[in-house]
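Researcher: Next entry in the queue.
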Amino acid sequence: MRMLKRAVKLILSRGITTCPSRLSKRNDLFHVHPTVMQALAEHKPVVALESTIVTHGMPYPHNLRTAKEVEAIVRAEGATPATVGVIKGEVHIGLSSEELDHLAQCKNSLKVSRRDLPYAISRGLSGGTTVSATMIAAHRAGIHVFVTGGIGGVHRGGENSLDISADLTELGRTPIAVVSAGVKSILDIGRTLEFLETQGVCVATYGSSKNFPAFFSPQSGFTSAYHVCNPQEAAELVASTLSLDLQSGVLLAVPVPEEHAAAGQEIEEAIQAAVAEASATGVTGKDVTPFILRKVNELTQGKSLQANIALIHNNARIGSQIACALSKQMNDNIIEKLTHDPGNLSVDSKSDIVVIGGINVDFIAKGKTKTLHFGQTNPGSVCQSFGGVGRNIADSLSRLGHSPLFISATGADSNSDAVFSYCKHMNTSGVSRLEQQSTATYCAVISQSGELSVGLGDMDIHQQITEHYVSQFETQISAATLVCLDGNIPASTINYVCSVAAKHNVNVWYEPTDSDKACKPFLSDAWKSLSYSSPNLAELFTMNKMLGVTTPEVLPGTLDEMLAVAVALSRPLLEHLHCVVVTLGASGVLLCGEHDEGTVNLQPRKHKRQRTLCALHYPALTVTSEETMNVSGAGDSLAGALMAGILRGQDTDSCVRMGLLAAKMSLASPHPIAPTLTLDSVDPTKTHTQSWPTPSLVWKE
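Model: Structure for this entry, 701 residues:
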C-alpha cells in the first residue's frame, strides 16, 4: 500500500510529458443527412440521387425545380431521397433545401467524378457528383439503389482514344443498383455494353423486352443480357447481387415513357448535328456532354429538356418502387430467432465473440438552450433510439464484420417489437422474450452541448439474464475467442461466466456500465478471470475500493493528474487482468498492460505470464459541441471497435484509432452506435487523411 501511494505521489510530482500532436481538422468527410441516417437505421428504403443534373445538366431554374420534383416523387413512392453533392469540400449524402439551392446557383461548380473527389475536398470546393462519385458516397452510407438520368459510356472512337467514362469501371467495383435510361446515343452503345460485360456488371432492361434504351429512345438497336418485368423482380436481382458479395453493381435500364419517345427521332437528329459541331469546334473530354445537351435543347426548341425531365421523373418513380420492394425483401428474409422458452433455443453455434448484457429502448431529449431549467418545459428535441451497453457493443461488432452471439432479455411488448425490428442486422438468437416483463427503457436529458443532465432507467428485466438462462449457451461461451460482459447482468451470472472462461481459457472483457455496477466481479474472486476491462475513472475508483485500495476522495481535474491516478489504480488490476482500458472522455483513452516494443500488447493472451507493464495515452479526436448529438454510446462504440480490431489481429495503434473513430461517429449520431459505422468508416488509412494525435508512453515499470 505504501508503495502504491508513493507511486501516485511520484507520478503527480513529476508530471507526465506528452509529445506534441497535430489534431486533424476533420475526420469524416462524408456527411449523412439526419433524415437519411434515420431511414437507414430503421431499414427503410432510401434512393440516392446524383447532382450533376443540378450543376451541369440543366439551366437554372429548371435544374432546381427538377431536383425538388424528383425528391418529391421518391417520397411519394414511400422512400427517402438522398441527393449527393459536394459542398465546400465535404461530401453530403442527402441535401437540405438550402444546400440544393446553393448547388443550383453555384458559379463555376466542379463536375465531381471519382477522379475529382480528392481535389474538390482538398480545395474546399463545391460541385455536382457524377454517377461514379455518387455511387461511392451511396455505397459508403449503405444505400443500395441509385437513380440517375443516363450513365456515361464508351465514347465514339473510344477504341482509339480510350475515352471511357468512369461510371463503367465504378459499376464494376461498387455493389449498388443504378437505375437509368440506358446511355446517350452520342456514345458507342455496343462497346459500352461490351465493356460492362468485361467489368462483370449485370445489365437488365426494365420492362417486357430486352431492348436496351438509348436515353431519349426506348430502343438503341442493342439488347441487354436480361430483363425484369416489375419492381419485385428487379429487387430480387439486386438482392441476389448483394448477397453474392460480388463487389460489382447492377445496371437497370428503363426505357423513356412512350409519350415522350415520339420526339426521339427529332432529338436524335439534333444530337448528330450537335456532335458534329462539338467535333468541329474542338470540344473534348468532360465538356462534350454539357455542350451537346445545350445545343440539342436549342435545336429542338426545348423538347429535349422536357423529354429529359420526363425520363428522370420516370426513373425516380421506378427506382423508388424497386428500393421499396428491395427493402421489404431484405427485411422479410431476416429470420428472427426468438423464443419464450429459454430451454427451446435455436442458436447459431459458431461465433468468435459472445456478448452478454442489457438492451434498452432509449429516449434522448436534447435541449436547445445553453441552460436547462428544471421544473419547467424547456425547448428541445426528443428522439427514440436503441441502446443498452451489451446491445451497443454487439451492434458495433456486427457493423464491423463480426457476428457476435448476443445474450440478453426483453419483455414481450411493443418496445421489444421495435428493438428486434431495429436489430435485424444482429444475431439476436440468444435474446429471451419474456411474458409479464417490460423491456428496459432509459430516458436521458442532455444539454445543448451534448452532456448528460439527468438520466432515468427502468432496468429490472436485466436481472432476468440469470445464471440458469446463460448456462444454456455454455458451449458457445467455452468455444469463443472473447466473451464480453456488461455490468447490468447479475453478479451471479458474471461469476458463472468467469468460471466457464477460466476452465476453457477464454478471454473475458468486462464493461462496468456505471460506478455502482463496476464492483460486481470484485464481490468475489471472479475478477481474477477477467482479461480486459474498460472503466472510466469513477468506475476504476469503485473497483479499487472493492479491493481495499485507498483512492482519492475526488476525481482528478487536470490531464496529468487523471493519467497519474489512472495508472496507479490500474496497477492492482493488472495482477490478473491482461489490459485495462481507462476511458477519459474528451481527454482520450489510457491503455495499461503488457509493454511490447513501445506499445501495449492488446492481443488475447493464451496463458498468464510475468511481463513488464506500461501505460500509453491516446488523445481523443476533436468533436465540437455543434457536432455532438449525444454521449450515450461513445464509450461502447470505442470498446466495440477495439474488440473488433483485436479479433482481426490489428496492431495496437490501428485498434485504438478504430475505437476513437467509432466514438466520434457515435457522438455525432442520434443513435448510440452510428448506423453508418462500417469497417471502411473506421479504417484509419481511408478515413483520416491528416496526422493522428501522437500517443505518449506515460509509465513503464
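Model: The chain has 25 helices and 26 strands.
Researcher: Noted, moving on.
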